[in-house]
TrEMBL record:
PANTHER family registered for this protein in UniProt: B2 PROTEIN (PTHR46034:SF12), PTHR46034
Pfam family, one: Dev_Cell_Death
Record-annotated DCD domain positions: 14-99
Name assigned to this protein: B2 protein
Species in which this protein is naturally found: Sesamum angustifolium
GO terms under biological process: response to endoplasmic reticulum stress
């Protein structure tokens, strides 16, 4: 098992089974309201491996709770919504709410 979140790299030929984004109490409400999840720039390569339909999870490290299942609505990308969060360089993916 390869931990892509720790390495920051997703091999181009690797198919992901799901992806966990991280938030805290300060960012969780914005993540859910915008249906947009973000990570620091060092995760750029692994976020680019996200494809529409991929299961997504949101881990709140303040409360130690895992939320989901969400579904990726788009390919992973950079700066999808320039008004999201204060760090404009965050890598993001748009997700849809659980069914």
């Amino acid at each position: 098992v390869q931990d892509l979140a720790c390495s920051g790299d997703a091999p181009m030929n690797e198919v992901l089974g799901g992806y966990i984004f991280v938030c805290n109490n300060d960012t969780m409400q914005e993540d859910l309201k915008r249906q947009l999840f973000g990570l620091p720039p060092r995760y750029r390569d692994s976020v680019r491996a996200i494809t529409p339909g991929l299961p997504l999870f949101l881990y709140n490290y303040t409360t130690h709770q895992l939320h989901g299942i969400f579904e990726a609505a788009t390919f992973g990308g950079t700066n999808i919504d320039p008004t999201a969060w204060e760090d404009k360089s965050a890598k993001v993916n748009r997700g849809s709410l659980p069914r």
